[in-house]
Amino acid sequence: MRLPSLGRAATLIEMTGLEMTGKGGTEQPAPVMPGMTAPMTAPVRVAILISGRGSNMAALLDAAAAPGYPAQMALVLSNRPDAAGLDHARARGIEALCVDHRPHGRDRAAHEAAIHAALQARGIGLVCLAGYMRLLTPFLVGAWAGRMLNIHPSLLPAFPGLDTHARALAAGCKLHGCTVHLVTDQMDAGPILAQAAVPVLPSDDANALAARVLRQEHLLYPLALRLLAEGRPGRSDAGASLRNPQSFDPSPPLPPPAAGT
Fold first, then answer.
1. What is the value of pTM for the model shown?
2. Which of 45, 62, 112, 219 is the most buried (most CB within 10 A)?
3. Beta-sheet strand order (sheet of 241-246)
């Protein structure tokens, strides 16, 4: 596959097989999510789990407000009662719920059982982690296997965990970015749904790089959720489809060449 030049563009890499064709050039049917007999047609009810302000949550809410978006934001849930994202969700007319972890002490299983019960009671079909800062146990991960997404601020498998922007700078990376993946028992190691890459500039510090990546997170997460809600998850054997969701040009245009050169 011939890849287009990155240039100065922030490049989206969709590991979703948007152009799935067989050997004879015929379009292949969309994959089916675990437990489904056909791709989703009605909007799937989505819960967003947050622990703070939830900027990616806001991007998902904005995307879901567009006509034809295949997911309905039905619940924003936080483990912290003071999470700013809860008030933002309420202002948008979305149910906001706190399932506080503190009354459960160190009993993570009991806390996650309460979260699971809340999700089931509201008919949730997909779960998006958006700045949810609690490590999940195998119980909740297993209960929502194939139906729980996370966004991570690096081009996985590079730089799992914390401090990704500083680590990318320390490693001398020329490209950095973000990844939407399915959640598994291993941290930041689930199947990749989509990635967005941005250039690392010589003048960057961790904050500048983080801000550039965050702009792409707000574009990437709604796209990955849309594809999963439409029943088109996972890496395709047909390869990757590359797109540019937002052009990025940090410098003014070059002047025209002088006459005679």
1. 0.78
2. 112
3. 95-98, 71-78, 44-50, 126-129, 148-152, 175-182, 192-199, 10-14, 241-246
The tens digit of pLDDT for each residue in 152-169 reads 999 999 999 999 999 999
**Catalytic residue check, 116:** no
**Domains in the chain, start-ordered, CATH in brackets?**
1-17+153-223+232-249 (3.40.50.170), 43-144 (3.40.50.170)
- CA-to-CA distance for 48 and 129, rounded, in angstroms? 6
Catalytic residue among 88, 101, 111, 152: 152
Which residues are CB-neighbours of 175 under 8 A, at least 6 positions away? 6, 155, 197, 198, 199, 200
Reported as half-sphere exposure (CB side, CA atoms, 13 A), residue 149 has a value of: 30
